[in-house]
Amino acid sequence: LTPLLPHIDHRNRGMRTRLGCLSHKSDSYNDFTAILPDKPNRALKRLSTEEATRWADSFDVLLSHKYGLAAFRAFLKTEFSEENLEFWLACEDFKKTRSTAKLAAKAQRIFEEFIDVQAPREVNIDFQTRELTRRNVQEPSLSCFDQAQGKVHSLMEKDSYPRFLRSKIYTDLLSQTQRRLS
To answer: What are the contacts of 128-134 at 24+ separation with CB within 8 A?
Structure first.
């Protein structure tokens, strides 16, 4: 048994090293072209330090800003949790649906993609919320995802958002906007 221990430790150390490299690489953005929509270089020039700083005022301010949303999405991808934001955005889009004919199909698609157990991009919600949403989708209305969307919003606000504000992505973006001023 003793000869196996060094071998096991060596494998664990190798895995830790690989995971460490992955995590260091994933949270660094020197080039923001990957996260900013449209024409990234022009976008970064238009983004003021004041705007980027305001993202720290509240989670909703971040979500309402096109580039803030893009930066937050990039951050969530590094944490493998972008499905939360994608679900929230899908719900926002769903609420704008005016065609009652499209409502049921859209509701079903969102449910199957994000809410259903084993959904491809399943969000983390409790059983009661999942079941309530399942029932709501049977007779969809513009508010059928409200409770699930609220839970996911709250989760992102309390969990991901504070980490985003401390992340290298956000601090590098702020630094880059400040450097342009000097």
So the answer is: none
